[in-house]
Q: What sequence folds into this?
């Protein structure tokens, strides 16, 4: 009987040892897996953190580039404004003979025929009978109706207005310069913001 009990106890001790060894092995396995998982999570978090940091940096760089482009556009706009203002003043300050040539060629280019010419108050002396006669001779050569000088004068910064029925073409120097200025600004904006290759 004692021998049987000893045998059972001995077997139980052996089983306990085996279980302990297996438990130790399982514990090591679980710890190793936990460490691997922790390392993987750590690396993932670092990667995500790095990606987030990179995204934040890229966003800031983009914002700064846009800000710089806006400043450059504002600077160029201011410079262009000064250039165009100076050019307009030069045109307005031309001697009458030169200004007459400019206005003559502008009217020939823009007139469709049969319009009234509304003149700038400061330039009414340009549109004398000789000027109008020569102008209408050229207009007639193109098969268009002659132009008439309007009784109306307007406070324009140089140039004229062609008026026919309900249609008006404003060819005052100020309006033409504004148009050219805005066109130039649009070209600059395209260069700065268009394809993103301007940097």
A:
């Amino acid at each position: 009987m004692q021998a049987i009990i000893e045998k059972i106890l001995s077997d139980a001790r052996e089983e306990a040892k085996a279980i302990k060894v297996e438990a130790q092995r399982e514990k090591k396995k679980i710890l190793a897996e936990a460490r691997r998982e922790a390392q993987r999570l750590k690396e993932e978090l670092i990667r995500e953190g790095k990606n987030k940091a990179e995204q934040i940096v890229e966003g800031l760089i983009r914002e700064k580039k846009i800000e710089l482009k806006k400043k450059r556009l504002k600077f160029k706009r201011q410079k262009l404004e000064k250039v165009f203002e100076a050019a307009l003043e030069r045109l307005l300050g031309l001697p009458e003979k030169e200004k007459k040539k400019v206005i003559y060629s502008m009217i020939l280019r823009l007139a469709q025929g049969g319009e009234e010419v509304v003149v700038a108050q400061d330039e009414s002396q340009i549109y004398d009978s000789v000027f109008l006669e020569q102008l209408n001779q050229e207009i007639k050569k193109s098969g268009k109706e002659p132009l008439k000088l309007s009784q109306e004068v307007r406070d324009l910064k140089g140039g004229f207005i062609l008026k026919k029925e309900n249609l008006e073409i404003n060819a005052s120097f100020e309006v033409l310069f504004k148009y050219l200025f805005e066109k130039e600004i649009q070209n600059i904006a395209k260069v700065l913001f268009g394809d993103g290759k301007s940097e």
Q: What stands out?
A: Strands lie at 116-120, 148-154, 159-164, 167-172. Helices lie at 2-92, 96-110, 129-141, 173-193. Residues 195-199 have pLDDT under 50 and may be disordered. The CA atoms of residues 159 and 172 lie 4 Å apart.
